[in-house]
Structure formats: C-alpha cells, structure tokens
Amino acid sequence: NEEGAIGPMISSLQSQSLFTAGWEVEILVLPNGCSDRTAAVAGAALEAFRRVHPDVRTAVHEISTPGKANAW
Known about the structure:
Layout: H1 3-13, E1 26-29, H2 38-52, E2 57-60, H3 68-71
Parallel strand pairs: 1-2
C-alpha cells in the first residue's frame, strides 16, 4: 500500500542521468497484495515519466499475493 509514495518516487527518477546515457532501461512496478490504488497511481506516474523519457519501457504488473519474495 504505497499509493501516497509511489508517484513521487517515480517522478524523482526523471532527473537521473541513467535515462540520458543511451542505455536500454525498463521500469517495472510490482504492487503485491495492495488494497489501495498503488497500481493505478504507478500507472499514471509511469505515463507522465514516458512523456519525458519516451524510450524507457515501463509496466505495472499487479501480484495478488503479498510479500517481497513474491515480487522478486
């Protein structure tokens, strides 16, 4: 349940030099067992991110089972 934190965290990535270095980069968000709007907020933040960095691949994959090991 990171609805309040995931958007600002994704936005903070935009200034990283990694995304202007010419590397292939993919950002995956794996909300696992969230009962809030974490996945929806992440999806919206990733859409905004792609407007700045259109070559970066992004995806949100919801996992119904909670736990860090399940996301790994």
